[in-house]
Amino acid sequence: MAFPEGFLWGGATAANQYEGAYLEDGKGLNTSDVLTAGSHTTPRRITWENPQTHETGSTGMGFGSPMEFPEGAVPAVIDGEYYPSHVATDFYHHYAEDIALMGEMGFKAFRLSMNWARIFPNGDDAEPNEAGLAFYDAVFDECAKHGIEPLVTLSHYETPLSLTINYGGWKSRKLVGFFERYAETVFRRYRGKVKYWLTFNEINLMSMAGFMAGGVTDTSEQARAQAAHHQFVASSLAVRAAHEISPDIRVGQMLAYQPAYALSCDPADQLLVQERSHATLWYADVQTGGAYPEYRLLEMKRKGIEVSMEPGDLELLSHYPADFLSFSCYGSTTLTTHESDAGAGNFVFGVKNPYLKTNAWGWATDPACLRLALNTLYDRYHKPLWIVENGIGWDDVKEADGSVHDSYRIDYLRENIASMRDAVTLDGVELMGYTMWGCIDLVSAGTGEMRKRYGFVYVDRDDEGQGTLARSKKDSFLWYKKVIASNGEDTE
Fold it and tell me: Residues 418, 420, 426, 429: what is their CA dihedral angle, to the nearest 10 degrees?
């Protein structure tokens, strides 16, 4: 048998890219609600308003384009702009239909995020929004009907906007307490319905895009390091609360990870790979390993970064690390200290790898990346792993008869499943499950596009927000159904 009995096959989504209903039933605004659409060549923007002068404008996200707010301006929804998250692909009104499609494919797990501002509209509310809680009750009940285990991310680029405006986002220690209240509320509410939780999606994105990762508008390294520490503390408090509420609950970390190759055997290239790897792995060293690594402490000292910690913080991190490590991995990156052609991908930096094929967005398909990633992380942390994002964005074409022939997606997934199979069967890695990213078409986080599609199910929605939102199966739908039914044995 290629994969262990009980292996959790499924798919993954995020509320800000999928759920929609951005102001329905008492939901408040979150940071993604002020992000415009973009494209492969045009970065998304954050819109703002000056409450005193009513002047409006926009700035970059701080990732691929600089983020700078004029004095007195705050992030805001403004007239005349299109915001993809406001409707997204409308899971809010299609959840029963979508979960039924997942059940038809044979999903064992469905990764979704809860919209924090749907539960606590301002983030710092004393009491939760019952309508928001009831919605997720309905979602989890629907999952149970189809034998699907939810894997729930508490914060997936969805910091309540009020926490950014009033506190500066995760730069403020106060968010630790607000998050702890939120986590305890949902752990208790959904006890017996949800066993697996993640705290922060791709927590290491804080190094590159603080606004997305935690509503942080201060772009300094000092602010982002402080915000990351607050998220680490909040994660440990969530682990502690979960274990006290139910011994069955497991709370994991979610890391954005990609193997890094040196373009040449120049020692300088090898050192660059080590440096970039450290820039990612220190986040897991803290949240999953339970302590700040020495190399990170020395780096902060060299840069003059002084993270404010309260008494007991380090003990908390040590005593309540993540129960398992989940991660996203779409491909690898190639690095060099020499001049070379730039590469591209999902939050990817580096140069082109001459041995890999690329798609229209410049993404390279690496048939070995999952095996390499799994071995690196398992050897380092010796904890169960879960691949919670892996997939390929493509400009799928819907034919006149309604069919979508996405053989390229099947080819990509076949190679990646073979790679993780080798990690399990040849290397002995303990892998809990695999949730392919964007199982139902959704909005791209990086570009805000619809045409960069990931799913097994096509959603009739375009980059301008037009379409019926009707669902239809792609060729990959039946292929993945076969893969799950055979527990990964039949991928042809």
Answer: -170
What is the pLDDT at residue 350?
Answer: 84
178-206 pLDDT per residue, tens: 999 999 999 999 999 999 999 999 999 99
Phi and psi at residue 155, to the nearest 5°: -145, 105
Phi, psi of 472 (to 5 degrees): -150, 150
Judge whether 389 counts as a catalytic residue.
yes
What sections of 304-354 are H helices per DSSP?
313-319
Active-site residue, selected from the candidate residues 49, 142, 149, 389:
389
Residue with tokens 């809680």: 133
User: What does the block give as tokens for 252?
Assistant: 């994991």
Q: What is the pTM of this model?
A: 0.97
Among candidate residues 202, 244, 315, 339, the one labeled active-site is 202
CATH top-level class of 8-22+88-485? alpha beta
Domain parsing of the chain, residue ranges:
8-22+88-485
Closest CA to 452 of 442, 464, 439: 442
Give the Cα separation of 477 and 491 in Å (integer). 12
Asked whether the beta carbons of 372 and 329 are under 8 A apart, the reply is no
The residues facing 424 across adjacent strands are none
Asked about 202 being catalytic, the answer comes back as yes
